[in-house]
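Possible regression after last week's pipeline update?

I re-ran a chain I had predicted before the update to compare outputs. Posting the input and the new output here so someone can diff against the archived version. Not blocking, just want to make sure nothing changed silently.
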Amino acid sequence: MCRRFSLDLDWNTVASDFGVDDEDVDTYALPARTFRVEPKQTIVVLAAGEDGRRHLSGGYWSLVPSYSDKRELTYPTYNARMETAAQKPTFKDAMRSRRAIIPASGYFEFKGRRPFYFHAQGDAMLAMAGLFSWWRDNADSPWTLTATILTCDAIEEAAKIHNRMPLLVSRDMTGQWLDRHVDGSGIIDDIHAASLSMSENLDCYEVAEPAPEEDGPRCIRPKAERVCLSLF
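New output (post-update):
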């Protein structure tokens, strides 16, 4: 499960790394940098159009299917299980042809109430697998981009903290994952296999739970370090 992650990223760098042209970056919709983005807030969504052009924009973190008559659903949709997304009514259309990458600088998992922070060695960007959908309240309302993050069974050290973890997309499989003309059901196993090797190499450490409104680098400091700092 992933219900909090950090976005300490430069959007121009993200766009360049993934081959997004400047005119396809929705600068005004992108969120400010944050170290604790949570469901129903704005995240970054990288996806392709029917013509194959890649776009980078901000999106609502909780997927709302276009057929829904309201944005607030009775069940959480900020995560979707990779094993069942292709069968669930909420996610199956997106799994077939509306897949995305959700960039992150790291993510949190919780063991009870204790948060642990996972990040790539060298603080490289993580590319989490996502699904997207466009939703609007009525015919006169503007469309809203909404998205979810796919999860898989946790492995090794991560499994000691929580039983689920985000599904990651390797760089060499980005093209297939974003291709609107490829059915996600046919490639999800390959995406998963590559994801496991990347997840095995993530660094992880416990952090202190931040105050309700706290943001910034303190949110990802190791717990022991934060305890020491509080003594001064």
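Follow-up from reviewer: compared with the archived run. The two ends are 35 Å apart (CA to CA). Marking as no regression found.
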